[in-house]
Amino acid sequence: MKAAHIYGARDIRVENIEIPELQPGTVKVKVEFAGICGSDMHEYLAGIYPIRKQPVLGHEFSGVVTEVGEGVEGIMVGDKVAVEPLIPCGHCKNCKRGMSNLCTQSQGYGYSFSGGFAEYAVARAENVFVLPQNMSLELGALVEPTAVAVHAVRQSQLNLGDSVAILGAGPIGLLLLQAVKAAGAGRIFVVEVSEERRDKALELGATHVINPVTTDAVQLINEMTDGGVDVAYDAAGVQATFESGIMIVRPGGEFKIVSLWEKPVNFNPSIIVKTEAKISGSYAYNNLFPEVINLLASGAINGNAVITSMIALDDIVEKGFEQLTKDRKQCKILVNMSL
Q: What number does CATH give the domain 157-281?
């Protein structure tokens, strides 16, 4: 089968490899759609993560079941499915505390095991979720990033009617926007340099969009909220958004960091000392796939709105990774294995 291998920074190659073997308790999936994630981009631009144990990328993917291993129940050949990539150990302290996303021995598809940028994938049955008949496989590939956004909102101190700022309107930012709206946020400010992404944010329910290149977002948000939003979410991961985030939350508010970072940031802790605001992180998700599938299938979160391109696996570098480095109009690019 064909699969996309990463060998280092800006070195991804589509090569022919053996199809993973079906094992007892596992399911073989013919991959139909797989999304390029921000974390994939970090590896492409900055180099391979230490956690990577094999080269086949892709952890946001959906497909159709072609084989079912011995002992598997509730999943049948022909089922449309989404695959959850996280494989917690179930035994460490964090797993026992109910925080499997923070498992100290975690593995994952697309990192420890062959991922979704391949024609076929084999996954544990407990990582395979059957999609409703009315839900497309394209949306199935959006379950993983949507779970990231929903988890971040659930982990934050957002309450019904609260004001929110979202810094960055890429895929996670736009999914965060819809998640906070579904959770009952009041005013929603989106700060984004791309005009196309600002327009999309308005379409999806932002009450205010701000171009930080032409407008002082910190001053404007603080003026409009009389001292800052209740919760700000960073979905960009750069120095400018970090600086803005800590300056636009009200005293006692929360700055929730959802993005991954390629570089450290400079930070004066006195800003937080003087406001008693919180800086907190959000990593992946925890047992959320069933709920997120329902949100996407029902249209409560519009996953289709963040998809901007469909490309073939053979074009994953030039029309995928390279395109995302230079075209701010792009949001979520899906690899369509049928192209």
A: 3.40.50.720
Would you list the domain boundaries of the chain?
Answer: 2-146+285-336, 157-281
CB 81 within 8 A of CB 140: yes
Bridge partner list, 336: 33
Tell me the per-residue pLDDT of 6-61, one tens digit each, with 9 for 90 and over. 999 999 999 999 999 999 999 999 999 999 999 999 999 999 999 999 999 999 99
Architecture of domain 2-146+285-336: Alpha-Beta Complex (3.90)
CB-based burial, 252-291: b 16+ in 10 Å, e otherwise = ebbbbbbbeeeeeeeeeeeeeeebebebeebebbbebbee
Q: Taking the CB of residue 106, how many other CB atoms lie within 10 A of it?
A: 20
Residue located via tokens 């946001």? 60
Q: How many CA atoms lie within 13 A of 154 on its CB side?
A: 14
Distance between CA 36 and CA 39 in Å, rounded? 8
* 219, 210 contact by CB (below 8 A): no
- Other beta carbons within 10 angstroms of residue 104's beta carbon come to 11
Residue 262 has pLDDT above 90, yes or no: no
